[in-house]
Amino acid sequence: MNKPERFRPPSVDTVLRIADGELAIARHGRAATTKAVRQVLDKLRGAGSPPSASADQIARMALDWLEEQNRPSQRPVINLTGTVLHTNLGRALLAEEAIQAVVTAMRAPTNLEYEIEAGKRGERDAHVRDLIRELTGAEDAVLVNNNASAVLLTLNTLAKDREAIVSRGELIEIGGSFRMPDIMARAGAILREVGTTNRTHLKDYAEAIGPETGLLLKVHTSNYVVQGFTAEVEPAALAKLAREHELPFVDDLGSGTLIDLARWGLRHEKTVQDALKGGADLVTFSGDKLLGGPQAGIVAGRKDLIAKLAKNPLKRALRLDKLRLAALEATLRLYRNPDRLAERLPTLRLFTRKPDELRALAERLQPTVASALGSGWTVEIIDCASQIGSGALPLETLPSAALALKPASKASGAAVESLATAFRALPLPVIGRIAQGALVFDLRCLEHEAAFGGQLPLLKPEAGDGLA
Known about the structure:
The chain is α/β, with parallel strands linked by helices. It has 3 domains: 12-69; 78-86 and 350-458, Aspartate Aminotransferase, domain 1; 96-340, Aspartate Aminotransferase, domain 2, CATH 3.40.640. 40% of the residues lie in helices and 19% in strands. The protein has helices spanning 12-17, 19-28, 30-46, 55-69, 96-107, 126-136, 147-158, 180-187, 202-208, 235-244, 272-277, 303-311, 313-318, 322-334, 341-344, 346-351, 355-373, 413-424, 449-454; strands at residues 78-79, 114-115, 120-121, 140-144, 163-167, 173-174, 178-179, 190-194, 213-219, 249-254, 282-286, 297-301, 377-389, 392-407, 430-431, 433-435, 438-442. It has a 7-stranded mixed β-sheet with strand order 4-12-11-10-9-5-8, with helices on both faces. Strands 13-14-17-16 form a 4-stranded antiparallel β-sheet. Strands 1-15 form a two-stranded parallel sheet. Helix 2 (19-28) runs parallel beside helix 4, helix 6 (126-136) runs parallel beside helix 14 (322-334) and helix 7 (147-158) packs across helix 8. The longest helix is centred in the last third of the chain and has 19 residues, at 355-373. The model has no long low-confidence stretch (mean pLDDT 91).
């Protein structure tokens, strides 16, 4: 019996001189390429590979491995989930003006904390403070890295070791099991909850006020709605009560918007201006949700209270960097021209896409997707409802159109899961949702039709019955 021929690999130096080896060196450096080639050779020896593995093949394997290792962890995806402000997919898309502002700020030193005319140290929030004043009517504003930080800073500044009075029905939990009572504890405030889950009255707040009270807090329940036998106190009444006791009244809007969304057919959501006119001393809100900008937390309101927040050492730990400040400034400038806002702000543009437009898109894509999947699958156009997302307008849905991809024969959950995996494996991963035995692609957020359709020939689905 003949002994199997032992694998005799080419030398590392030989592999490095191959075209793909030289390309790997050019892209990733000689040291990294040499290491990759040796790892490939060790793997081939361990697998008992046949002697037919050539230097060309080894160089290609090393190059592929290096390319995979150096691929960015955070990658663009196509969001076909039906949730516009999808927290897991990065929430709001930035306007082109914001993107250009970020690029400009990245390429050169900026006057982030420098007053050019005066030739002295400046303050970074000054770049957007006047815009926030102009757009909201607030006396002043301070900026941090998200709305949770805005609430944390406010509570730590105004209610540390003192009571913050809030309705029991407003002790919200947002994504990642993040709870209002937890942020209050971290801020050093003492939670004083009043009322019940479904009903809270003005007298509940009044009876809770005492020598240890630091502030009254109203939290916008942006990601749920309590219906039925309910009662809550209007902000104006809380503001009046707070003034009578010389206490700050803080209105946490969560998402926060600067313009009435009813203008575009959406349900009215309380704006920052509404909250301030309603008597709030401070209003906290996000930059990356309904506002349509970068991740940021904004506190707007009374000048004397804002000054206290700005002096808190936590402010430095929570501050924005120059890139997000640049993006936020550019985004806020768009609100100066509300007539063009839906055209220029991606978030609002996606909210306002018409069902007829989306159905026409579905009709164009249906044959392309069906051809890519083959006979084992059916592709049906269906009506669906998109969500705003990120805890904003929880009951508001947007009529939309979708493609429902189902096995052509018997239903197979494994096959649908496998298909979803195949779409996520594309160079530009496509993220949908699985519902009622189908992979559903809501097309509301698909603006680059060619990018989606152009990569479908690379799709490698399993047959609809779950067999390869």
